């Protein structure tokens, strides 16, 4: 008998009813403590649907909750929905948690869910890519919502994580019925203001400086045994590695989410600091512009060298990733040949082997492709120290084989739009996967269109066979067949090589000893669980 249920890591099958927690009510007084968190990255906006980046989600998900959440082991669990069930092939029914309050004191209801889902799937929302196939939502009663699909979707609940629920009334009052056009640099009320149901509420957002949050005392989840005692929270943006660590050492901040790699060994032996680490479910890539007939920012005219597989293989062979990890990342990473981590369900472990570092072979391939003297190119990278340092090392290695690479490091606000707009000729970026592969495959490898397919396919790669498999996977409930589809897609993409897989980080957080936090493999901090002694 064929197995028809997906594993608990994804969902517990087509019908899922999970733990019931108490509705919101007055909670006993708790002795709260402040928390100050430093990172090199700013969240960019408070609009929960405007972008879908780790550094945005890390902050905004404290304020805006989803219908589903994840537990300490990164498994799906209830959040604003208590239970969910596929009641028809193209209809999932969600039973909502009663008694939930928005930060402005108004009640959360089915009307807000319908509004939020429709907002999230409508351009210019960058959350639309993960909700492909969702056609809308329908209110059944005040605490029941049906999510409507164009075709059966075996893992729909998995895709609703990080789709924040907004107040319909608040959004209408402030004219933010549509998501902010982040790429268009639109300024809306939702950029600097927020009204969610989460454990933290927004006090103030100062772009590129700090985000101040405070405890939402009426949050429904404080009675949970896992809950922490954080009161006021300040996320501080500090670009300088040395300054972030100096602030931690002096007690100006309590936690650094991205300690510099050159200091990891020292931090491990510092009795004042707790260093927590885990393997990253995401990884870093190089992506090529495969759409343009002529390579921009290059001395090659009338041609695009990236369209030749031999040139892309030359880039691969030119990069000594073990050396970069050893010298630049100080051993805090793992070279990878896989396009998705083996932690993602269906990603074959054998694909994790890299092509060998072989600069002679790289030069030979360039010659065979018609570029015996190489060519020039610009590599785009975000201007955060460890990313920029890796890009500098790669640029030097590529230049040695004849691909004369000029590094262009940009701040987050101008770098990340290049990914969704597809305007970079050659770009380094990272992707944080989820345990189910479809979200990543659709975001990275599906042919791009404005309806939410291939949103982060920065090089505009397109393969009809890959597209057909990704589309079929979305509706396939059988675990064995689904894993086979994932494996086939990853093998096809590996053959085409539109991306060069680089490495997976070792995620590290440095904290004062009085701080305790749960670490997920996606590098996201859950403030609801943080304890400060």
Describe, in plain words, how this protein is organized in 3D:
25% of the residues lie in helices and 23% in strands. It is built from 15 helices and 22 strands. It has helices at residues 54-60, 110-120, 156-159, 168-173, 189-192, 241-250, 264-268, 309-318, 321-327, 359-368, 385-400, 412-421, 438-444, 464-473, 479-496, and strands spanning 15-17, 33-39, 68-70, 76-78, 81-88, 91-96, 134-141, 144-149, 200-206, 210-215, 230-237, 255-256, 273-279, 283-288, 333-335, 375-382, 403-410, 426-431, 499-501, 503-512, 515-516, 531-532. Strands 2, 9, 10, 11, 12, 13, 15 and 20 form an 8-stranded mixed β-sheet that branches. Helix 8 (309-318) runs antiparallel to helix 10 (359-368) and helix 14 packs antiparallel against helix 15 (479-496). It is globular, with a radius of gyration of 23 Å.
Tags for this model:
single chain, 533 residues, alpha+beta, D-Maltodextrin-Binding Protein, domain 2, Dipeptide-binding Protein, domain 3, five-stranded antiparallel sheet, disordered N terminus
- Separation, N- and C-terminal Cα atoms: 53 Å
Shape annotation: globular
Estimated structural class? alpha+beta
What is the overall pLDDT average? 92
Q: Superfamily at the CATH H level of the largest domain? A: Periplasmic binding protein-like II
Question: How many individual domains?
Answer: 2
**CATH class identity of the largest domain:** Alpha Beta
Radius of gyration, taken over Cα atoms and rounded to an integer in Å: 23 Å
**Do you know the CATH architecture of the largest domain?**
3-Layer(aba) Sandwich
- Specify the number of helices: 15
Low-confidence stretches: 1-26
In total, the number of strands is 22
Q: Give helix % range.
A: 25-40%
CATH topology of the largest domain: D-Maltodextrin-Binding Protein, domain 2
């Amino acid at each position: 008998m064929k197995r028809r249920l997906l594993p608990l890591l994804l969902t517990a099958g087509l019908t899922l009813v999970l733990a019931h927690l108490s509705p919101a009510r007055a909670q006993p007084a708790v002795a709260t403590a402040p928390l100050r968190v430093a990172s090199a990255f700013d969240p960019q906006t408070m609009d929960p649907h405007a972008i879908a980046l780790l550094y945005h989600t890390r902050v905004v998900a404290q304020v805006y909750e989803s219908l589903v959440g994840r537990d300490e082991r990164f498994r799906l669990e209830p959040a604003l929905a208590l239970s969910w069930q596929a009641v028809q092939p193209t209809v999932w029914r969600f039973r909502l948690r009663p008694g939930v309050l928005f930060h402005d004191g108004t009640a959360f209801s089915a009307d807000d869910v319908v509004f939020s889902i429709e907002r999230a799937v409508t351009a210019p929302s960058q959350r639309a890519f993960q909700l492909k196939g969702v056609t809308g939502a329908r209110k059944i009663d005040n605490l029941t919502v049906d999510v409507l699909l164009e075709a059966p979707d075996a893992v729909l609940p998995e895709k609703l994580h990080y789709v924040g629920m907004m107040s319909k009334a608040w959004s209408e009052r402030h004219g933010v019925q549509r998501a902010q056009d982040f790429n268009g640099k639109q300024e809306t009320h939702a950029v600097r203001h927020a009204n969610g149901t989460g454990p933290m509420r927004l006090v103030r957002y100062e772009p590129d400086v700090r985000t101040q949050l405070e405890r939402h005392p009426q949050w429904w989840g404080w009675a949970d045994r896992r809950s922490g005692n954080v009161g006021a929270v300040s996320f501080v943006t500090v670009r300088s590695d040395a300054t972030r660590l100096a602030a931690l050492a002096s007690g100006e901040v309590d936690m650094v989410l991205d300690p510099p790699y050159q200091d990891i060994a020292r931090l491990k032996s510092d009795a004042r600091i707790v260093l927590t680490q885990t393997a990253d479910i995401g990884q870093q890539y190089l992506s090529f512009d495969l759409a343009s007939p002529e390579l921009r920012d290059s001395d090659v005219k009338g041609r695009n060298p990236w369209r030749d597989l031999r040139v892309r293989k030359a880039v691969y062979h030119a990069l000594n990733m073990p050396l970069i990890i050893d010298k630049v990342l100080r051993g805090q990473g793992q070279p990878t040949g896989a396009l998705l981590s083996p932690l993602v369900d269906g990603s074959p472990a054998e694909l994790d082997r890299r092509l060998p570092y072989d600069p002679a072979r790289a030069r030979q391939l360039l010659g065979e492709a018609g570029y015996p003297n190489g060519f020039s190119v610009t590599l785009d990278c975000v201007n955060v120290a460890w990313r920029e340092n890796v890009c500098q090392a790669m640029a030097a290695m590529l230049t040695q084989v004849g691909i004369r690479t000029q590094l262009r490091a940009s701040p987050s606000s101008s770098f990340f739009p290049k990914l969704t707009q597809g305007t970079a000729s050659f770009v380094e970026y990272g992707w944080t996967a989820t345990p189910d592969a479809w979200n990543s495959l659709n975001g990275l490898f599906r042919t791009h269109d404005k309806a939410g397919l291939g949103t982060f396919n920065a090089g505009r790669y397109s393969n009809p066979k890959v597209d057909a498999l990704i589309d079929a996977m979305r509706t396939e409930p059988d675990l064995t067949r689904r894993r086979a589809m994932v494996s086939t897609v990853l093998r096809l993409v590996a053959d085409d090589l539109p991306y060069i897989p680089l490495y997976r980080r070792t995620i590290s957080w440095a904290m004062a000893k009085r701080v305790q936090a749960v670490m997920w493999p996606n590098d996201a901090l859950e403030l609801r669980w943080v304890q400060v002694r």
